[in-house]
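Hey Z.,

So I finally got round to the uridine 5'-triphosphate thing we talked about over coffee. Here's the setup:
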Amino acid sequence: MIYFGGGIMKVVVRIGGSVIASPPNPELIRKYAELIMNLGKREHKIAVIIGGGKLAREFISLARELGLPEQEQDELAISVSRLFAQVLSMMIGGYAWRKIPENIEEAVRALSERGIVVMGGVKPGMTTDTVAALLASEIGADLIVKATDQEGVYTRDPRKYSDAKKLDEIGFNDLEKILSEDRHRAGIHQIIDPEAVRILKEKRIKTIVVNGFRPENVLLAISGAKVGTVIH
Ligand code: UTP
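And the result:
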């Protein structure tokens, strides 16, 4: 039994495409649908933002090879993220929930009407981390949980450096130092997008990065248990 000490919360859950969509994982998608429905029943407000994962990156490569410009590569990735959002949304709310918000305004409206909203990307030149940060700041979220393919934030990229160490917590300023200031490119992958970090830092929104292959980690993060990396 997980205790939610803080009462009703507004939570943004950012689920990596690397987690539920690379390849598409019906088992995990079902678990996330149940988890989100249960949180909604406790009257928490839950906004979920999903990325397009491997399939989005395949479309980006295809478009790149065909010589389509960066903006159009991004548009394709956004479409893929919305497809996965649509799957999860319909698992939660059925056919009536098949329409996926295409911008922050629509997402805010859906969230206030239903208490739960699921969406993907919104516009070229950003990542779904930034979408999550923008929505979190718009609704005054208590918390963002990023469900990713690693245990949390590491001192350096653990896929490249075997001596990388997982951090239990980190301040926004130190996190900004760890993340290289890469300019946006279609399909860019970092543990969390520096642009999102900038927004979250400014609005002081607590962020927890957890391993999303175990959806219960999202519940643990919301309940205040020690899991993943807390960014504050
Ligand atoms: P993400 O990199 O944000 O999603 O979006 P992901 O697949 O969940 O990534 P992981 O699992 O965290 O690695 C994929 C791509 O979609 C485009 C960008 O090219 C981005 O890199 N995108 C997404 C946009 O252009 N605009 C958006 O609003 C969202």
